[in-house]
Amino acid sequence: MTVPQITRTVSAHETAQTGALRDAMIAELREMNAIRSDRIADAFRTVPRHLFAPGEPLESVYTANNTLVTKRDGHGAATSALSAAHIQATMLEQAQLGSEMRVLEIGSGGYNAALIAELVGQTGQVTTVDIDPGVADHARDCLAAAGYDQVNVVVADAEGGVPRYAPYDRIIVTAGTWDIPPAWSDQLAEGGWMVVPLRIRGLTRSVVLERDGDHLVSRGYHLCGFVPMQGAGAHTERIISLDGDEVTLRVHEKQPVDADRLREALFAPQVQRWSGVVFDQVAELDLWLGTAEPVFGILAATDGPIDRGLVARSANPRSANRGVPTAVSAGSFAYRTKRSIEGTSNFETGVYAHGPQAEALAEQYVELIRTWDRDHRSGPRARIEVYPTATPDADLPPGRVIDKKHTRVLISWPGRRTL
User: Fold this and answer.
1) Closest CA to 19 of 37, 39, 46
2) pLDDT at residue 79, as a whole number
3) What is the mean pLDDT of the chain?
4) How far apart are CA 256 and CA 240, in angstroms?
5) How far apart are CA 40 and CA 93, in angstroms?
6) Under the phi-then-psi rule, with left for phi > 0, alpha for psi from -120 to 50, and beta for the rest, what region is 315?
7) Contact in structure between 180 and 407 (CB atoms under 8 Å)
8) pLDDT digits over 280-291, tens only?
């Protein structure tokens, strides 16, 4: 990868403009509740974000919700990016970094490593690792230009962590992670935490994990999105074409899906059911649906089939975080949607279903929405636990078990005995 020119003369006007844009971004991040502490705000105020995105307009760099893709593969898919500031701030708040901490960042870009360096101070240690030598070189050059050349920049497949500088008080992962390799747990210091964008049935949450005996337990999580992990930790999702490239169903993990029957179901008469539940707290509702449904995927559609009435607008990736949660049963499927509540600015949550079991599946889906509304809307959030892959079923507490290569991820919801 060619590294854009970084060092250049900066005018007094640009310095003032950069400072004003930075302050406005921090104010917006506080309004979004992404920044909640003065320490995080000071770090964002100190680190010059624009030096890590040379050539980009300052207004784009200092926008709270803007991701800047810095590299793509031969198919145009993003392989490296300067993450949106609100995601970076959220994960740093989750990590609760303190001075003198040793931190491993998995996935380099430079800017986030500089923020971490500010937070751990001169007595701390920051290591950032990336599998792509070009990305690592870019991060190294940008860090040096910004005055953070004390950061260790390592080129390696992060599946093995970075044992040279271990143990780590915090491991912060900035790539979409389908599984948690043993090396990360092994290199975590006693009492240390991981902050991991964990992919769970196609849904990504930034999960804070700490060790509890032989497994990891969540301290909290937050909706997020990242470019996927590369190397040994990469995971290829199963994409089922229901109508060419215009309607697809993404299925993660090993789940029984009859693709041919689902294609037929798409063109069968549609069943609608409405729950009476207000459409809000969508991220929590979707996680509940993804763990409560036995077979689950993400339905996505382009404008063509939506305009033809084949699929609801909610399935458009631009309006629903890459698609909508979908229950699958044999040759039928159902997905959530919404409609306006007359006389209000609110929406009602509903379900569209297709296939020979559409009626029953729609009723089942609606009941899950109502269960979430009744039992979990105002209650404790999900508990996410990560066990070694050899853990037998008898040693696991009740919950939805999602088997991966290295681990068994278990998700349970307080107040519900089984899933």
Assistant:
1) 46
2) 58
3) 90
4) 12
5) 7
6) alpha
7) yes
8) 999 999 999 999
Q: Is the pLDDT of residue 156 over 80?
A: yes
As beta bridge partners, residue 72 has 78
Q: From CA 315, how far away is CA 299, in angstroms rounded? A: 6
Q: Using CA atoms, how far apart are residues 172 and 240, in angstroms rounded to an integer?
A: 32
> How far, in Å, are 59, 148, 173, 298 from residue 91 at the CA level?
23, 20, 9, 25
Contacts 24+ apart (CB under 8 A), 57-64: 58/14, 58/17, 58/18, 58/21, 59/21, 61/21, 62/18, 62/21, 62/22, 62/24, 62/25, 63/25, 64/25, 64/28, 64/29, 64/32, 64/34
What pTM value is reported for the model? Answer: 0.90
Give the pLDDT confidence score for residue 269 in this predicted structure.
92
Token look-up 């950069």 returns 18
Is residue 320 predicted with pLDDT exceeding 60?
A: no
Beta-carbon contacts of residue 314 (< 8 Å; ≥ 6 apart): 320, 324, 335, 336, 337, 338
Give yes or no for a contact between 175 and 226, defined as CB atoms under 8 angstroms apart: yes
Tokens 């029984």 -> residue:
256
User: Stretch 242-252: mean pLDDT, rounded?
Assistant: 93
In whole angstroms, give the CA distance from residue 345 to residue 329. 34
* d(C-alpha 104, C-alpha 100), whole Å: 13
Distance, CA of 224 to CA of 88 (rounded, Å): 10
Cβ pair 103, 116 in contact under 8 A: yes
Mean pLDDT of all residues in 19-43: 96
Catalytic residues: 83
Question: What pLDDT sits at residue 8?
Answer: 35
If DSSP codes are grouped into helix, strand and coil, which group holds residue 239? strand
Taking only the tens place, the pLDDT of each residue in 71-127 is 666 655 555 678 899 999 999 999 999 999 999 999 998 999 999 999 999 999 999
CA–CA gap between residue 103 and residue 221 (Å, rounded): 19
Q: Tokens in use for 143?
A: 């860090």
